[in-house]
Amino acid sequence: GAGVSQSPSNKVTEKGKDVELRCDPISGHTALYWYRQSLGQGLEFLIYFQGNSAPDKSGLPSDRFSAERTGGSVSTLTIQRTQQEDSAVYLCASSLVGGGNQPQHFGDGTRLSIL
Amino acid sequence: GENVEQHPSTLSVQEGDSAVIKCTYSDSASNYFPWYKQELGKRPQLIIDIRSNVGEKKDQRIAVTLNKTAKHFSLHITETQPEDSAVYFCAPTESSNTGKLIFGQGTTLQVKP
């Protein structure tokens, strides 16, 4: 596609429910990143994929968070047993390759609200 | 890990004036230094970046300067316009070879007409 696509754009759910967030990167981009932006804050790194592998998961806040990537393309971020502190905008970015000096292009994000 | 600080946190200028935002980082092995612009409710948009083998880069009204010895880089916007009003983030990469960006806390720029 022309840009990074994320769905849903908004998600409201009750505390304790599981949620799945989807990211479709720019076609041909092998590196994919998930970040989280809490209200009025900067962006916080969550996880990095190179192809289908995740060599860096160091930003995942707890074991309730997991992510996968299939076919070197679409990625899903899953949050189990959601808590109110999980409320944030979850942003996905992709770059041509990983490794530290490639531009990352962001999607519009999923705004997650936990009631 | 990388520690990033950005100053000022807010900046108000008159249309036509220049704006400068500074970012300091701690990881001497960082090698990529982008600046993002984020308008309210929108995605972060890459506006300019610089790599560690270059000291300065310019794109029309926007420039970035890098001082690797002092571990800081700055965003310069000249002839500011109201549409430049947004939050600006610096985001140097951590030297882990993953490319993950470590974001500053952001600078809210307001350009008054």
Give the ordered list of helices and strands of chain A: EEEEEEEEEEE
**Beta content of chain A:** over 45%
The biggest sheet of chain A amounts to: 7 strands, mixed
- Beta-strand proportion of chain B: over 45%
Which shape of chain A, going by the Cα principal axes? globular
Query: What summary fits the major beta sheet of chain B?
Result: 5 strands, antiparallel
Task: Show unreliable segments of chain A.
Answer: none
Largest interface: A-B, 27 and 26 residues
**Which consecutive residue ranges of chain B, at least 5 long each, have pLDDT under 50?**
none
User: In angstroms, what separates the terminal alpha carbons of chain A?
Assistant: 33 Å
What general form of chain B does the structure show? globular
Overall mean confidence score, pLDDT of chain B = 94
**Main β-sheet, spatial strand arrangement of chain B:** 1-3-8-7-6
Number of β-strand runs of chain B: 10
Order of helices and strands of chain B: EEEEEEEEEE
Q: How many strand elements of chain A? A: 11
Tell me the quaternary state: heterodimer
> Given the helix and strand composition of chain B, which structural class is it?
mainly beta
